[in-house]
Amino acid sequence: MSGRKPYTRSMSGWWKRDPFFTAYMVREATSFIVAAYAIVLLVGLVRLGQGKEAYDGFMQALQSPISVVFHLVTLAVFVYHTWSWFQIMPKTMPMIFISGKRLEGATITRTGVAVAVVVTIVFLAFVMGVTR
């Protein structure tokens, strides 16, 4: 043995070397914002359980400029997160055949996005109808 160390390739910045891996890491990073928003919703639920005054205080806090900015950033992150997951859906699910032809990945992605948009609109219409 000559005392030389074997070559070891550096792992720092590995995800920056390929656009596919960069998109993967950005998609994974969005999950932290999704988790943060889940915590906000849990706090709202706890405040609701603590009574009207606590819940009103929570709702007032949501109207602060910092909260509004957080919610706008969260909305943008959720839209990207949703889009990116629908883009990888065709790669993660079994192949679908219709009339003997394989369903294209773009069709699966567009269908998933369309369903998400429709469900969001129906949900918003329901919420707006309930709160009037």
CATH topology: 3 helical TM bundles of succinate and fumarate reductases
**Poorly predicted runs:** none
Structural class given helices, strands, pairing?
Answer: mainly alpha
Annotation, overall tally of beta strands: 2
Superfamily (CATH H level) name = Fumarate reductase/succinate dehydrogenase, transmembrane subunit
Strand percentage lies at under 5%
Widest sheet, order of strands: 1-2
| Count of discrete structural domains | 1
Oligomer: single chain
Number of helices: 4
What is the string of helix and strand elements? HHHEEH
Give a short account of the largest sheet. Answer: 2 strands, antiparallel
Cα-atom radius of gyration? 22 Å
Proportion in helices: over 70%
Q: What number is the mean pLDDT?
A: 90
Tell me the overall shape: flat
Cα distance spanning the termini: 81 Å
CATH class: Mainly Alpha
Indicate the CATH architecture. Answer: Up-down Bundle
Description of the molecule:
This protein has helices at 19-49, 52-62, 65-92, 105-131, and strands spanning 97-98, 101-102. It has 132 residues and is mainly alpha-helical. It has one domain (15-131): Fumarate reductase/succinate dehydrogenase, transmembrane subunit (3 helical TM bundles of succinate and fumarate reductases, Up-down Bundle), CATH 1.20.1300.10. The chain has a two-stranded antiparallel sheet with strand order 1-2. Helix 1 (19-49) packs antiparallel against helix 2. It starts with 18 loop residues before the first helix and ends with a helix. The mean pLDDT is 90.
